[in-house]
Write a structure and sequence with these properties.
Blueprint lengths: L5 H27 L2 H23 L4 H27 L7 H21 L6
Helix pairs in contact: 1-2, 1-3, 2-3, 3-4
């Protein structure tokens, strides 16, 4: 049995938070008829399960840990900015959602790159 490393456990923690946020945002979107919240929910629901896989893969390749870290950052920036706009009437800062979205796209491209990289030795 393999013991998860601290970075893998941290990614799993954020996977759980992201998945929970996705479900809550989907419910809020449905009850409030909000396309903005639905967009945030979809990003969370796509990235939460991916973070589980990246957490496990991070013990074999550093690229997976980098992808997971970037995915967490991008998800928080993108979905968080949309949620702030929906509930507070303003976002984190100008360009937060595009920066977050670009970060998520880059994290998924890093996932593809990680698939081509050799596993860690040992």
């Amino acid at each position: 049995m393999t013991v998860l490393t601290l970075p893998a456990r941290i990614l799993l923690f954020f996977a759980g938070l992201t998945g929970a946020a996705g479900i809550m945002l989907a419910a809020a979107s449905y009850h409030g008829d909000s396309a903005v919240l639905l967009s945030a929910a979809l990003v969370c629901l796509a990235n939460g399960p991916a973070l589980i896989g990246l957490a496990l893969l991070s013990m074999r390749t550093a690229a997976a840990l980098a992808a997971g870290t970037l995915m967490v950052f991008g998800t928080v920036m993108f979905a968080g900015d949309l949620v702030a706009r929906a509930y507070l009437g303003f976002g984190f800062f100008p360009m937060a959602a595009p920066i977050g979205g670009t970060s998520v796209i880059a994290s998924w491209l890093l996932v593809a790159l990680a698939a081509l990289m050799p596993a860690r030795k040992g």
